[in-house]
Specification:
Helices cover about 80% and strands about 0% of the residues. By secondary structure, the chain is an all-alpha fold. The protein folds into two domains: about 60 residues; about 55 residues, Winged helix-like DNA-binding domain superfamily/Winged helix DNA-binding domain (Arc Repressor Mutant, subunit A, Orthogonal Bundle), CATH 1.10.10. It is elongated, with a radius of gyration of 24 Å.
Length: about 140
């Protein structure tokens, strides 16, 4: 039953951002939610499990943030091997900055060059990056 309660609390807490300002409200709402589903368990025990679940939620969030920072650092390092124009094409083409993928046509308008030239720049940039990605 402890595992079921922990999982229920953890899943419910996913609805809340990891933020000290909402922590108390998140814990209180989650305790109430769990008490409704496990009315025979002592409230103190449920509260303890919910606090543990909150800590797991925070730890997982922080670990994901660390991974995201590492990925961004790795991406910056990879892109540093490209010329400014190559980097710009790759960033636009794959949505690395704006999370919006652009077509060759759209990039050609931004750079004021032909679509074919953008394709060539992209190809050259990917060739430069390939040795680093094969490691």
């Amino acid at each position: 039953m402890d595992i079921e309660l922990s999982r229920l609390a953890y899943d419910y807490l996913q609805n809340f951002p990891v933020d000290d300002e909402v922590r108390e409200e998140a814990l209180q709402q989650t305790v109430e939610y769990c008490v409704d589903r496990f009315p025979t368990l002592p409230r103190d025990e449920i509260t303890m499990m919910v606090v543990r679940a909150w800590n797991w939620h925070v730890d997982r969030h922080n670990a994901q943030k660390d991974v995201d920072l590492s990925r961004r650092a790795l991406l910056r390092k990879l892109l540093s091997h490209l010329t400014q124009r190559e980097r710009q094409v790759i960033e636009l083409r794959y949505g690395l900055v704006s999370n919006q993928i652009q077509t060759l046509e759209e990039i050609s308008k931004v750079l004021n060059v032909s679509r074919e030239y953008v394709r060539m720049i992209e190809e050259r940039a990917l060739r430069k990056l390939k040795p680093f990605l094969d490691e």
